[in-house]
Amino acid sequence: MSQIIQRMDENEPIVRYRNITKSFGDHIVLKELDLDILPGEKIALIGPSGSGKTTIARLLMTLEEPTSGTIEVGGEMLWHMQRKGNWVAANEKHLHRVRSKIGMVFQHFNLFPHMTILRNVTEALVHVLKMPKSEANQRALEILERVGLKEHTQHYPAQLSGGQKQRVAIARALVMQPQIMLFDEVTSALDPELVGEVLDVIKGIASEGDMAMILITHEMDFARDVADRILFTDGGLIVEQGTPKDIFENPESPRLQSFLSRFLKGQSELQADTRIAAGTE
Amino acid sequence: MWDWQYARSILPKLLEVIPTTLAATFAGFIIACLLGLPLALAKRSRMKWISIPVTAVTEFIRSTPLLIQLFVLVFVLPQSFGITLSPFLAGIIGLGIHYSTYLSEVYRSGIDAIPRGQWEASIALNFSKARTWTRIMLPQSIPPTIPVMGNYLIVMFKETPTLSAITVVELLMTAKVVGSASFKYVEAFTLVGVIFFILSYPSALLVRALERRMKRSERRGLAR
Ligand SMILES: Nc1ncnc2c1ncn2[C@@H]1O[C@H](COP(=O)(O)OP(=O)(O)OP(=O)(O)O)[C@@H](O)[C@H]1O
Ligand SMILES: [Mg+2]
């Protein structure tokens, strides 16, 4: 086990999607996807609605099972395991072990409403990692301080704003020290004035470096600032990928070009709509 | 018609069996609560060989009268399996099993009401299945069902006269015995009615108050 970790140098991907196809019924959502993610790499996924971005993340978080293909995490198969020399579908125990390297933050926070903020963050430390309560509390307090929520440890999720809730959700995932963290449109459910505080927290985490991230987002400025690499998905395919500079300044495929222009236009329309709705226009 | 003095004279006899009646109610309720939860989980199970038979059996029990089930416990069990239960024990078991099928539906609706995101967050944090149930799902799904549970407790209390059919000495049985001794049924049965009312009406008010309080805190967003 330790040998495997040692072999994982900087250039060895921590995640490998190989030939992943996912369909719901006869609707093919991802088509023969290949994707490597390096340790510490920050990847932004952009693309139109329904293009398969969330599905890419959910397959890695084991919330959705691939129809075919394989995913490797840290040199180990995620959805498969070996039994008597044959590859078979992973059982719960195997998933449990490999999944421990992955964390996820959701669009709708999914905090545990019956627990205080502190317990939301300590619960998995205590009951998954079996950490002593005092140590878990200390770790949680450190992380909550980092996301600016030290004053709210004894509150319940319902007493917080959306932005605060999402910062708790980030702390809750972060405290488990995953090697890869998935962020699925974590600001889409927030009021516009609360988006900034959450993005700032994520930027802070990203700048620390060692954790790989997949950021699914419609915030193009944020993607440009944070990502090492941007993937543009459309119709279940990664149509184009490159550095933020490549993607935003030299989009090659017509689909990305039209997405970006539609997106920018859409955004100004959206702003106009909200102004109309607010009665200021 | 109504003989106050006679009524007063039989009252102690009726009051005497209130503990038995309440004991049968609570014991039956506890059985129903304990049995209802695994039934709910089994009915929701993705394994068809568990969910289908359990659903079938609970539907059967729910759709047949309690009285028949009590008779089965008292007459069929000794004959076919050599198990003889005291009337009281048979009574609480029958009551418990019968109402566990109702309570399992209550639990199930509580569990189904939990948003899918809670399951997904539990997986993302790598909670085991068992921990997901004990730390996340059940603590959220049971509190909202408490008022409904309270209503079932009252319903079960009012169902205890059925136990007189298998000779459990509860209120109705006692009234019948007392009444037949003097052929003055009006007083005995009226008192039984009054006792049931005095015990169940305040309980019902209590449950309603509880329900209102929970609705209020839910509106404030504290429950969910
Ligand atoms: N559980 C499911 N059952 C059936 N179809 C699904 C399911 N989940 C996703 N899909 C479909 O798969 C396609 C891709 O969905 P996905 O959520 O990955 O897209 P997305 O790129 O994240 O879109 P958005 O920007 O709207 O979040 C969509 O057409 C969606 O309707
Ligand atoms: Mg999505």
UniProtKB/TrEMBL annotation, chain A:
Coiled coil: none annotated. Residues 15-260 form the ABC transporter domain. It holds the Pfam family ABC_tran. Keywords: Amino-acid transport, ATP-binding, Cell membrane, Membrane, Nucleotide-binding, Transport. InterPro entries: AAA+_ATPase, ABC_ATPase_HisP-typ, ABC_transporter-like_ATP-bd, ABC_transporter-like_CS, Ectoine_EhuA, MetN_ABC_transporter-like, P-loop_NTPase. It is a peripheral membrane protein. CDD domains: ABC_HisP_GlnQ. Its main location: membrane. PROSITE patterns: ABC_TRANSPORTER_1 (PS00211), ABC_TRANSPORTER_2 (PS50893). It is found in: Cell membrane. Belongs to the ABC transporter superfamily. This is Ectoine/hydroxyectoine ABC transporter ATP-binding protein EhuA. It comes from Paenibacillus mendelii. The gene is ehuA.
UniProtKB/TrEMBL annotation, chain B:
Residues 18-207 form the ABC transmembrane type-1 domain. It is a multi-pass membrane protein. It comes from the Bacteria. The chain crosses the membrane at residues 20-42, 70-97, 188-210. It holds the Pfam family BPD_transp_1. The keyword Transport applies. Its main location: membrane. CDD domains: TM_PBP2 (cd06261). It is found in: Cell membrane. InterPro entries: AA_ABC_transptr_permease_3TM, ArtM/GltK/GlnP/TcyL/YhdX-like, Ectoine_EhuD, MetI-like, MetI-like_sf. Keywords: Amino-acid transport, Cell membrane, Membrane, Transmembrane, Transmembrane helix, Transport. Belongs to the binding-protein-dependent transport system permease family. NCBIfam families: ectoine_ehuD (TIGR03003), HEQRo_perm_3TM (TIGR01726). This is Ectoine/hydroxyectoine ABC transporter permease subunit EhuD.
